[in-house]
Structures are given as structure tokens and as C-alpha cells.
Write a structure and sequence with these properties.
The chain is α+β, with helices and mostly antiparallel strands. It has a domain of about 80 residues. The chain is built from 16 helices and seven strands. Helix 13 crosses helix 16. The protein is globular, with a radius of gyration of 22 Å. The two termini are about 35 Å apart.
Amino acid sequence: MNIITDSFSSHITGKPYSGDGLTDGNVHEFINIASRQKILPMCADVLMTYKGTSLSKQNTDAIRHMLMNSIYGDTIHSCDFLRVYTELLNAGLSPICVKGIVCKQLYPSPSLRASADEDLIIRPEELEKTIELLKKLGFVLHADGSDISLMNDSGLLLELHPVLFRENDIISRFNDLFGNIYDTSHTLEIDDVNFYVLPTDDNLLYLVLHAFSHFLTKGIGIRQLCDISLTIQKTNADVEYAFDKCRLVRADGFFNACLLIGEKSFGLDLSPYDFINRDMDIEPLMEDILTGGIYGGETEDRVHSAEITLRAYASSLDNKKNKLLSAVFLPYGKMRTKYSYVDGRPYLLPVAYGDRILGYLSKRHNVKSTIDMGLSRRKMFEYYGIIGEKNE
């Protein structure tokens, strides 16, 4: 839907918008897709004052209501986060802030880039103290495996991570591309608060690999690519450094496509970089982005096909032959986290595999469409050099 990508591009670059306007005929599709991509406020900011927009009073009021609610909610959360982070600093803690409020500052109108949560990288030795302090500040703890999240009454959600990328996963090897982030982090002043953040070059690398990790499973949103482009434009991060690191985990083709989209949509100047493959087709990635939502989990097919795509990547990374059935019959380590009765009882794996298959059937899940989705995304992975034969 060009009206979304073009209006978003106009908001970011400041260039006049000249595409289709909102009408009562397209407004509901616009709201649906732009909301899934988490860019509705920025698109609406352009389109609601555009001469080509012609909406009924009811639809006009509805969009304005959404816009005001988003701004109000984000303002509340941002102020609350500034307060909470200051409390953490005053307690002698040094959480590293990634994405969220750090990326928000790069946007033309930061209040229009709403954040669903704030991510903090916590030193392992500070994790327990951090959690206890947050509880005293009114947060309620929710733990899911290695993920730790806390939410307070205002709706502020904090995600705590002891490492950049989850351990015990193929993605965990991305951590090896970074040095000791705790020793190299520095402070960035945001609204009179000094946030600990990653070094400039590592921050860019992290944003690319974080987007890549979601792309490997269910998909990514256009805003994640905008975060990357604005980070390059406004922080002078070393693009070639990140590109070389990405080559080590077969993410360079993905990053190349992100850069080309950044040039086309977000005013990114690629002239200094002679290593960019300008012949690469970005349409497969754009189509995947617009049909997947900000983190790709918009359909059951995407969610369930994630094992196919992730295992294809893992096999290529390790130069092993991938087997499609391994996406259904997961190894013991993963099955015991999904089916608690298997933990410590590997002999119950056949029972768990039966439960897994019955679970698909009970939800009337179309296994064929899942496989089709996985194979389609796998073909795209091959084009971008993520799996299969690597063309140097």
C-alpha cells in the first residue's frame, strides 16, 4: 500500500507528499496496516493535512482520536521511563538502554514514534538488585525463560536482558560479534538524563542484527529499517564496520537490502560506500515487511513457519544439511521449554511430539500453508545470501 510507505517517507525526509489521499474507501485498510507497522501517527501526521485527503467527519475524528491517544500514551510512558531510569542510576546501577528511547530521539517528531516497551541490558551481577528495585517502584515481574519483563500501573513495560541476544539459541552467536559492552558503553543525554548506551558503531550493528534476528523467524517492520537509516544519518556510525561484521553471520545481504531501502525511502546517502550491491532487488524484502507487521507475527503461518526458516539458517551457518522435519520434531532442549513434562524425562519426547502435532490440528492449522510460507521465505533467504551457496 504505497500511501503508507510514501507518507511515512515524507514524514521522515520532510519532502512534500504527492500520492493518494485518505478516503472513506481506503481509510480502514490504511489504519489496519499502519497500526500493525506501528507508524500510524507519523503517516497520519502527513495525510491529515494533505489536500488529496477527503474523509467523513466520523473517520477524521477517529484518526485524530487515535493520534492524540498515541501521543498522550507515549508521553506518559516516556516521562515515567525517565523517572524510573533515574532511580536505577541513583541506586548505583548501570543499565544499557537499546532501541526504544534511543532511536526515538532520531525522529523528526519523537513523540510520534511510540515504543511498546523499553529494553535494558543488565550486568548479570546487577540483575537481582535491578529487579528488586523495580518491584519497590511498583513494577510486577513476568518471567518467560530467559526473558524478564516488568510492568507498572501506568503501562510502562521494561524488558531486561543479561546479554544482547538470547542465549541457548542459534541467534546467541551474534553476541560474539561484540566486545565487552559493559566496559565500552558511554552515556547519552536525553531530556536531562544520562543514559548508558552502546558505542556508536556497536549500536548500529546491534540494530541491524536485532532486525535480522526477527527477519529470520517471523519478519520485521518498516520502522526497524527506518531506525537503522536514521542511526547511520545522525550518529556517523561506521557502516562498513557493521557490514563486515554482518558477513560473518551471513547477514550482509539483508543489511545491503536495508541500506537500499533507506536510500529510496529515508534519504540515506550511500555514495560513500562502494561495497554496496546496487543491483540487488529490494522488492522481496519490502513485500515481506508490509505483509508481516512490525515483528512479523501477523498470521499463524508466519509464526509456525519460523522453525523452518530459522533451521534453514542454522544449517547454512553450520554447513549442515537442513531437514524440513526438524522444524516439527524439535530437539530435547527446545521441547522441554515448550512442554514442561519433558524436562528431565527425555523418554517422553514421543508424547510431546504427538501433543505438538495434535496442537496444530486442534487449532485447525493449515500445515500445508505453513510449509508453503516457510518455503517461500526460504527462497527469499537464498536470494539475499542468508542460506544456500554463498556468493562472495
